[in-house]
Amino acid sequence: YGDTTREFTDAEIYEAARQADIHDTIIGLAEGYDTMCGSSSQVQLAGGQKQRIAIARLLIRNPKIVLFDEATSALNAAVEE
C-alpha cells in the first residue's frame, strides 16, 4: 500500500526510521542499516523493535489509509503518538 513505484533515498529511509523511533537502534547494530536480522541471522529484534521497523516501512510509503490492530502494543507512549 502507498508508494511502491520507486526506490527511496537513504535520507528518506533515515527520516522514516527517526519518526518511528528506531533509527538509533539500527545505527547501533554491527552493520547499521545493512545488518541482516531474523531467524537465519545472529541478530534478533524484540517485539517493539519489529513494530517500529514495520511503522517506518509504512511511513515511508505514505499510504492514504492506515489500519492498526493492536500494532502499537509493544511501543511506549511517546512513539505511539
Automatic annotation (TrEMBL):
Q: Which SUPFAM superfamilies match?
A: P-loop containing nucleoside triphosphate hydrolases
The chain positions of domain ABC transporter read 15-73
InterPro entries the UniProt entry points to: ABC_transporter-like_ATP-bd, P-loop_NTPase, Type_1_exporter
Signal peptide (residue range):
none
Gene Ontology CC annotations of this record: membrane
Q: Which Pfam families match?
A: ABC_tran
Q: Could you tell me which Gene3D superfamilies the record lists for this protein?
A: P-loop containing nucleotide triphosphate hydrolases (3.40.50.300)
- Recall the GO molecular function terms of this protein's record: ATP binding; ATP hydrolysis activity; ATPase-coupled transmembrane transporter activity
Which PANTHER family does its entry note? ATP-BINDING CASSETTE SUB-FAMILY B (PTHR24221), MITOCHONDRIAL POTASSIUM CHANNEL ATP-BINDING SUBUNIT (PTHR24221:SF503)
Spell out the protein name for this chain: ABC transporter domain-containing protein
* Species of origin: Rotaria sordida
